[in-house]
Design a protein that fits this description.
Elements lengths: L4 H7 L1 E11 L2 E11 L2 E5 L7 H16 L9 E3 L2 E3 L7 H5 L7 E5 L7 H14 L4 E5 L6 H13 L4 E5 L5 H11 L6 E3 L1 H4 L6 H4 L5 E4 L7 H11 L3 E3 L6 H13 L30 E3 L7 H6 L4 H15 L3
Parallel strand pairs: 5-6, 6-7, 7-8, 8-9, 9-10, 10-11
Antiparallel strand pairs: 1-2, 2-3, 4-12
Helix pairs in contact: 2-12, 5-6, 9-10
């Protein structure tokens, strides 16, 4: 292992950052940051993840902190805006945080909401930003019939769909939905069917997706994620897991390392955080983010420091997960 556990612990800082708006049930984002030979990295698997899954995220962080980066094809990356499952009256306020954008990803299938909530949110976005391409992200929350109904409704009402991300939970459902949507030229993108699958290539081999949504941390790091994209042979969108700017910088390096990057990436989510660990957060300017490493500000780390109890929880988790690498 390139970095010994004690060296990670020596520089580790646990932060707790409130979100501007609840996102997938999260109101506060916790993360453990540490410094390695190549710079700072972030380890922030969601709290409910077991140690085996969280250890994959740790491998990614250790790689980013200790290994040399792959060659880069670009020095900036286009990004989309991201809209949580807010009510229509909140749409303008939330999207204002992203500045100018050409594409917006809208969360749908939120627990506790129904299809009418989704339609109201989508149509409000289209009303306010009629030229923006729209992506729908269901996190596997629809069955095939409901997903198809929503996609057909978008097409019938002239809403420009970039793609439908993880509309259903299983690879078989995605394959069936993709067949149904071919007649209306709506693309299907796979996220959870890649990053949470025992075989991340299954969805591509089954012909169940047109696009892969790739996150560096859940797939074990830049090198492994890049291999999956190459082997799948499908266009990829690099996305975030609601990280600080330190974690986003790893995603940007992955995006910059891909020879082909036809879509805007989902790496603009620092705009959803109410604060950040750097003086100049990675918030898009004219729809782009610069590629480069970032260094946390000591004053920010102090300001956003998690409680002693939460810090101990993360350090205990770190020790357990490190043992699984």
């Amino acid at each position: 292992m390139p970095i010994a556990l004690e060296k990670i612990v020596a520089t580790a800082r646990v932060v707790s950052i409130p979100l501007r708006t609840q996102f997938r049930g999260v109101n506060v984002r916790e993360a453990l940051l540490f410094e390695g030979p190549q710079g700072w990295a972030e380890w922030s698997p969601f709290l409910e993840y077991g140690d085996a899954e969280a250890a994959i995220w740790l491998a990614a962080a250790v790689e980013f902190a200790s290994d040399e980066l792959p060659p880069l094809y670009r020095d900036r990356v286009a990004v989309n805006a991201t809209l949580p499952a807010v009510s229509p009256d909140k749409v303008a306020e939330v999207l204002a945080q992203f500045g100018p954008f050409d594409t917006v990803k809208i969360k749908v299938a939120e627990p506790g909401q129904n299809l009418n909530h989704d339609l109201q949110r989508i149509f409000k976005v289209h009303q306010l930003f009629p030229k923006a391409r729209i992506r729908l992200d269901a996190n596997g929350g629809f069955d095939v019939r409901t997903a198809a109904m929503l996609a057909f409704t978008m097409v019938e009402n002239g809403v420009p769909l970039d793609y439908f991300e993880q509309p259903c939970a299983t690879v078989a459902e995605l394959a069936e939905l993709r067949k149904q949507l071919k007649n209306v030229a709506v693309k299907v993108a796979a996220d959870e069917s890649v990053r949470k699958a025992e075989d991340p290539l299954e969805v591509a081999q089954a012909g169940a997706a047109d696009v892969l949504v790739i996150k560096a941390a859940p797939l074990g790091g830049i090198q492994r994620a890049g291999q999956i994209v190459a082997e799948a042979g499908l266009p990829a969108v690099i996305s975030s897991a609601l990280e600080t700017s330190v974690g986003i910088s790893m995603g940007l390096h992955l995006a910059a390392s891909l020879p082909n990057l036809p879509y805007a990436c989902g790496l603009g989510t620092v705009a959803l955080l109410a604060n950040d660990v750097v003086a100049r957060p990675l918030v898009a300017i004219d729809g782009f983010l610069p590629v480069g490493r970032v260094t946390p500000e000591p004053t920010k780390l102090d300001e956003l420091a998690a409680s002693p109890e939460r810090t101990k929880w993360w350090l205990d988790r770190l020790e357990r997960c490190y043992g699984l690498l």
